[in-house]
Amino acid sequence: MGSLEQSVHSTGHHGPATGITRWLYTTNHKDIGTLYLFFSLTMFFIGGCMALTIRAELFQPGLQLVRPEFFNQMTTSHGLIMVFGAVMPAFVGLANWLIPMMIGAPDMALPRMNNWSFWILPFAFTMMLSTLLMEGGGPNFGWTFYAPLSTTYAPPSVTFFIFAVHMMGISSIMGAINVIATILNMRAPGMKLMDMPLFVWTWLITAFLLIAVMPVLAGVVTMMLMDIHFGTSFFDAAGGGDPVLFQHVFWFFGHPEVYIMILPAFGVVSEIIPTFARKRLFGYTSMVYATASIAILSFIVWAHHMFAVGMPLAGELFFMFTTMLIAVPTGVKVFNWVATMYRGSMTFETPMLFALAFVVLFTIGGFSGLMLAIAPADFQYHDTYFVVAHFHYVLVPGSIFALMAATYFWLPKWTGHMYNESMAKLHFWLSFIGVNITFFPMHFLGLAGMPRRIPDYALQFADFNMVATFGAFLFGFSQLVFVYNIISCIRSGRQATDRVWEGSHGLEWTLPSPPPYHSFTEPPVFTHPYKENDRGV
Amino acid sequence: MNQLQQRNRSLLIKLLAGTVLMFGFGFLLVPLYDVFCDVTGLNGKLQNTGALTQEYKVDSKRQIRVQFLAVNNESMPWRLRPEQAEISVHPGQMTQTAFLAFNPTERNMVAQAIPSVAPSEAAPYLHKVNCFCFEQQPLAAGEKRAMPLVFMVDDQLPGYISTITLSYTLFDITPESSPVSGIAVAPARSVL
């Protein structure tokens, strides 16, 4: 990569452009990472407001605040915004900021495409959110948009929803291509694949998952579009189609999608725990193989979302056993994190607190997932609040906590300032308590038979719903502390050192805090952090 | 830089090809799904076989109960019911029956019946020689008609199956149909 000298010559002496064009035209991985992160934070709050609308309506039985039609639009939009607008772009933002700095690359491999893949997103989500104001309302068929609810019985705005999903898909695919090209082609000389930080590994595997399944999502919404407007009958039994086919194709995308949302979180936690345990990560190789096995298994388990649809016994058993098989590599990961902490010199800064909460609460979500995987038992849990509790436990204290941990962990590196530690700890404890008060009672509600996606419920569910709503408001409003802390950290704060944390390891910590606009224009000499210094100190 | 750009470009092309391939695979899942259902006989989907090409011998020692069901898809206002709810047949014996359809609305409508068989293992063994479900069925406003069904149960039907249920779901496929259609006469139960 000696030819990089050219770019040093031409880019070494100018910083970012000024004004709005800096952000519109930027091809800089740090700028685009920042844009992604702020975009997803905005979406997190929009989706959060929808969640609080849902919880406020469910505070008491009966219909108080919103009409059932609007309630359905809230549950649907909340799911879509959080999945496609908050969690996925946030991880792409982290990838943009961190992957080039972690592998010693000057930027992402395809910077112009990087700009494009971000700037599609605001338009996609403006289009999707605008449907809420249209005649007939926005999408109201659940985030899984099963046909025929989303075709024959859909509101007229469904076409906008379809195009919005197309645009999100294009954005994700371009982001994934960029990540793969960066990781495979731009690593610092001497860095082998098995030397890469685990965050980079998990993102490499996630990017392949994205390329494999986002086109299938595009395909399924295209089929919907054709059924609605061009007279085809993919999902219409009257024309020889099959609505169950929709569920199969959707979940063929949908199950890898849930790992797309959690694998980078595994990567984040695998960076943070060794730092604050002041030990190298236990079982690096097994972590890589576990991530890859989870990704491969995700393609053959999709029908466990459809146990109640009427499958033959052989099918139920196949999907039940393959689903349970996923617990093995996931268990390897959890045990590795625990083993990393074993006899470590642990300290409990905020990133570590979030990472620890991740390990504990994600494991709870994993166990309720195992319960749902048992086909005969699933008939009781299917489409109840138990499912809601399960996937919120893996997504909120799973993905979202990992994102918060990552924010606190790398914020001093990004901004050059330390955040306010006591305010961050307050944010952690409020979030931790809020999340559990919100979602733990939902297990009981589901086991007692409360269906999901309903605006009103039977009286016996009243107490737990009231508790959950209190928790939701506590969790929701405590995120304002998070935002305040981030903004004040960007503006001012104690100067952060280059290494920031005592136990930090990896190439990004060799850069100054904040890193220069163009970093690693000369490829660094890579020496394995663990091999050089076992304790990473 | 050129060498790196070259490598990035070739990787980009490969990954884009992968994307296009997976988009195609999404559509390929549709025929694959049908093939899978055909091969395994899942889903109770029937072959619309038509005229039989081979001779079947009547197995007069076996009795098979064939039950008929008719269901309307949502918003379909027609009345449809089988002439006989249940028939006892021998395998290999050609049997004719009919479904009675009535269009109670004040407009001409077209319907399509979609058959389904339970247990699904029996689906390949139920041969329909003639069926109203082979074609779209128009009925004028207020019209009543008996729609024929000629079928035969294959003599290869597995021994453990003694009852077959043939169910039809009726779909409204009238062009430009609106779900709100006036009912001309309130049909008494006895009309059908």
Question: What's the short version?
Answer:
The complex is a heterodimer of chains A (537) and B (192). With 537 residues, chain A is mostly helical. Helices cover 67% and strands 0% of the residues of chain A.
What does this protein look like?
The complex is a heterodimer of chains A (537) and B (192). With 537 residues, chain A is mainly alpha-helical. Chain A has one domain (2-10, 34-532): Up-down Bundle (Cytochrome C Oxidase, Chain A), CATH 1.20.210. Chain A has helices spanning 5-11, 20-25, 29-57, 68-103, 111-130, 158-185, 198-229, 243-277, 284-297, 313-325, 327-341, 350-373, 375-381, 385-415, 421-447, 462-491, 529-532. The two termini of chain A are 30 Å apart. Residues 1-12 and 532-537 of chain A have low confidence and may be disordered. With 192 residues, chain B is of the alpha+beta class. Chain B folds into two domains: 2-40; 45-191, Ctag/Cox11 (Ctag/Cox11 (Pfam 04442)), CATH 2.60.370. Chain B has one helix at residues 2-40, and strands spanning 64-72, 79-82, 86-89, 95-102, 109-118, 126-131, 137-139, 144-153, 163-172. In chain B, strands 3-1-9-5-7 form a five-stranded mixed beta sheet, with no helix packed on it. Chain B is flat, with a radius of gyration of 24 Å. Classes of the chains: A mainly alpha (537), B alpha+beta (192). Chain A binds chain B through residues 1, 3-4, 6-7, 109-110, 173, 176-177, 180-181, 184-186, 211-220, 223, 234, 237-240, 242, 244-245, 248-249, 252-253, 311-312, 315, and chain B through 1-4, 7-8, 11-12, 15-16, 18-27, 29-30, 33, 40, 42-43, 73, 112, 114, 120, 169, 171-173.
